[in-house]
Automatic annotation (TrEMBL):
It comes from Rhodotorula graminis (strain WP1). InterPro entries: Bact_exopeptidase_dim_dom (IPR036264), Pept_M20A (IPR047177), Peptidase_M20 (IPR002933), Peptidase_M20_dimer (IPR011650). One of its GO terms (cellular component) is fungal-type vacuole lumen. This is Peptidase M20 dimerisation domain-containing protein. Belongs to the peptidase M20A family. It holds the Pfam family M20_dimer.
Length: 454
């Protein structure tokens, strides 16, 4: 794994220079530290050191742009073009430079307004979130923990997939109160080679691999709407406050209906399916070297996003239980997570990919002081909005912040109608959404004044 000294990260220096030139008041007022060379840790010390700080997060890096798609962009992906309609186009404007710049802008305005925080405010910004955060977010979180202790932070706020939009007939603001886990596995098939004119069995190594993949896709995890799932909490809020059908409202309030509702939602909507259980995606496959040579090696890699209420181990066990009878029927050895390390032919190996295992995040409480601060601020910016729990189906840098606080929120402070195309062609954000985000961060920090959470 390349470290922060890798020259590919040097471009972050240009971003740091821009931030310092654009927000000189922030750099002069706050303590600015570089963690792991490119990680930014800004601290605005409060007047009461007995109060737990708040931590606001946004990462600096972006996913790359596939060169083959550049001509599909309306404007060049790294020009940050502002069009006549108020849209800013470019890679990273939605994920999540809008948040990073919005936080700096809010801090700058607070300084201009002579705000003095009672509670310490921390901005934590890593540079490798899109490749796991191991080089920066992990060190930023451990630095904060070394200073404030375990559970020493009142509130952590980072990027999310949910924001403010119209749902169930009313404005809905959804906070990510949970985050799915993740793990990836590799299936390797090692078989005897030879000339393809004389196949040695009904299935070549690639055929065996296809049988394994087919079995996995035929036995996905069952989507389940159950207590503790943030989608159920969201639906219950919709039943209480949304403009919804009376029969639907009765079904949501009846636990005996939850199983059927979950199955119906999963069938109709892939996003709902992702919220309702562990998902699997076969993303990489390799095998064979020549058309007339039997493949001696074939492999596939499968990515799992683990249900909010499940675990890495249960996911790994499920995968193994599906593959074991398939491999046995093919009369091959099944080496499950290293169970037969010395077998190197006519074997199917199942292994976990590197450090891919991430447990589902602890569930953030949906009541208490932190919830009231977040919900109250949100209702102030978006009048009439129903505030509801939601979840994060991907992973964020907050996975390193679990020791810091029970109160971790993942949220896009803007209308999702005005934030488009995360991670793909024509990523863009409307200036109105960006400015609303600045207002949200400003008001949130203003509201910490007099906030009596420990």
């Amino acid at each position: 794994m390349a470290g922060p000294e890798d020259p590919r990260f040097d471009v972050m220096g240009n971003l740091h220079a821009y931030l310092e030139q654009t927000f000189p008041r922030v750099y002069s007022k706050l303590d600015v530290e570089k963690i792991q060379k490119w990680g930014l840790l800004l601290t605005w010390k409060g007047t009461d050191e007995h109060l737990k700080p708040v931590v606001l997060m946004a990462h600096q890096d972006t996913v790359p742009v596939n060169p083959s798609t550049i001509d599909q962009w309306t404007y060049p992906p790294f020009d940050a073009h502002l069009d006549e309609s108020g849209w800013i186009w470019g890679r990273g404007v939605a994920d999540c430079k809008n948040t990073l710049i919005g936080l700096f802008a809010a801090l700058d305005r607070l300084i201009e307004d002579d705000f003095t925080p009672t509670r310490t405010i921390i901005l934590s910004s890593g540079f490798d979130e899109e490749i796991g955060g191991h080089r920066s977010a992990a060190y930023l979180a451990s630095t904060i923990e070394s200073r404030y202790g375990k559970d020493g932070v009142a509130l952590v706020l980072d990027e999310g997939f949910t924001g403010v939009d119209t749902a169930y007939g009313v404005p809905f603001a959804r906070f990510g109160m949970a985050e799915k886990g993740a793990v990836s596995v590799q299936i390797e098939v090692l078989t005897t080679g030879g000339h393809s004119s004389v196949p040695l069995s009904a299935h070549t190594g690639i055929g065996v691999l296809a049988q394994c993949i087919t079995a996995l896709e035929a036995h996905p995890a069952t989507p389940l709407l159950q207590k503790g799932n943030p989608l159920l909490q969201q639906l219950q809020c919709a039943a209480d406050h949304g403009d919804v059908d009376k029969q639907w409202r009765r079904r949501i309030r009846n636990p005996k209906q939850w199983k059927n509702i979950g199955l119906e939602m999963a069938k109709q909507d892939p996003i709902a399916r992702a919220f309702l259980g562990t998902t699997q995606a076969v993303d990489l496959i390799e095998g064979g070297v020549k058309l007339n040579a039997l493949p001696e090696y074939a492999s596939a890699s499968v990515n799992y996003r683990i249900d909010f209420l499940s675990s890495v181990n249960s996911t790994l066990e499920h995968i193994s239980s599906i593959l074991e009878p398939v491999v046995a029927d093919l009369n091959l050895t099944f080496s499950s997570y290293g169970s037969h390390p010395k077998v190197d032919n006519n074997v199917v190996r199942l292994s976990m990919v590197g450090t891919s295992a991430i447990e589902p995040a602890p569930l953030t409480p949906t009541d208490g002081d932190a919830w009231e601060l977040m919900a109250g601020t949100t209702r102030h910016i978006w009048e009439g909005a129903v505030v509801a729990p939601s979840g994060m189906v991907a992973n964020t840098d907050t996975k390193y912040s679990w020791p810091l606080s029970r109160h971790i929120y993942r949220f896009v402070p803007g209308s999702l109608d005005l934030i488009k195309n995360f991670h793909t062609v024509d990523e863009r954000i409307h200036i109105d959404a960006h400015l609303t985000g600045v207002r949200f961060f400003y008001k949130l920090l203003r509201n910490t004044e007099g906030w009596q959470a420990a």
